[in-house]
Amino acid sequence: MAAVAVAENTRVFLLDIEGTTTPITFVKDILFPFIRENLEEYLSAHWEEDECKQDVHLLKKQAEEDVRQNKAGPVHAVDQTVHTDEEKAIREVVDSVVWQMDADRKSTALKQLQGHMWRAAYTAGKIKGEVYQDVAPAVRRWRHRGLKVFIYSSGSVEAQKLLFRYSVQGNLLDLFDGHFDTNIGAKVDSKSYENIAERIGCQPEEIMFLTDITREAKAAEDAGLNVAVVVRPGNMELTEEERKHYTIVTSFNQLELSGNI
Ligand SMILES: [Mg+2]
């Protein structure tokens, strides 16, 4: 593993999660399937609670909006196994959520319910956030040298915090100075990285961004950040050209701070 020198003027590390700090499979094979598998049980258990009522209300408003805009929705067949109005109502919410997930919708209504289900699962110990072994020790070294470390992920800030708060390595939340999600802008839009620099209060070139996705790396680079592309098992293959253009690391341990930092 060759060492990679981090630019001397670096003051901040900005980290992606999926494919960078955390295996892509954790999100794809654990977090999202958990929603599908536990949705009906979760709704039944929490149906009468205010938070769940609000989630359902938001989902219904979303479904009405979809109908108005002529977007296809789930077709409700008459379900012979359903015996009460509540069961029928839950069934409809389940159908709607599954339909939205199949269509890869990113609606606020869907994200809110998912967030609440994950929170319940993490706090009950049913899910633990996966973080690569090299991440926490490296981040602690950087912070010890006075650098700041932020997260930028398309998962909501709340979901990000749950992952690190309830990780396989214990509570890792104190590793980070702050979190950004797509409220600051899309990860493939270079303006987002300018916004982040402004929010942190530093120059773009003082930030080192680590991600597995080259479109995100390109956007960050265009905004003036330094970038390295992280290659982890199961990440998308890079082209020959991308391998030539970008600094590649397979572990955070390869990133070496200069004596001046
Ligand atoms: Mg990623």
UniProtKB/TrEMBL annotation:
UniProt-recorded Gene Ontology molecular function terms: acireductone synthase activity; magnesium ion binding
Names of the cofactor(s): Mg(2+)
Pathway(s) of this molecule: Amino-acid biosynthesis; L-methionine biosynthesis via salvage pathway; L-methionine from S-methyl-5-thio-alpha-D-ribose 1-phosphate: step 4/6; Amino-acid biosynthesis; L-methionine biosynthesis via salvage pathway; L-methionine from S-methyl-5-thio-alpha-D-ribose 1-phosphate: step 3/6
Entry EC number(s): 3.1.3.77
Key words of the record: Amino-acid biosynthesis, Cytoplasm, Hydrolase, Magnesium, Metal-binding, Methionine biosynthesis, Nucleus
GO biological process, one term: L-methionine salvage from methylthioadenosine
Gene3D superfamilies the UniProt entry points to: 1.10.720.60, HAD superfamily/HAD-like
Ligand binding (substrate): S153, S154, K187
Subcellular location: Cytoplasm; Nucleus
Chief site of localization: cytoplasm
Substrates-to-products reaction catalysed: 5-methylsulfanyl-2,3-dioxopentyl phosphate + H2O = 1,2-dihydroxy-5-(methylsulfanyl)pent-1-en-3-one + phosphate
Top EC group: hydrolase
Binding-site residues for Mg(2+), renumbered to this chain: D16, E18, D212
NCBIfam families, alphabetized: enolase-ppase (TIGR01691), HAD-SF-IA-v1 (TIGR01549)
Family, as annotated: Belongs to the HAD-like hydrolase superfamily. MasA/MtnC family.
Subunit and interaction comment: Monomer.
PANTHER family xrefs: ENOLASE-PHOSPHATASE E1
Role: Bifunctional enzyme that catalyzes the enolization of 2,3-diketo-5-methylthiopentyl-1-phosphate (DK-MTP-1-P) into the intermediate 2-hydroxy-3-keto-5-methylthiopentenyl-1-phosphate (HK-MTPenyl-1-P), which is then dephosphorylated to form the acireductone 1,2-dihydroxy-3-keto-5-methylthiopentene (DHK-MTPene).
Protein name: Enolase-phosphatase E1
Organism (species): Phoxinus phoxinus (Eurasian minnow)
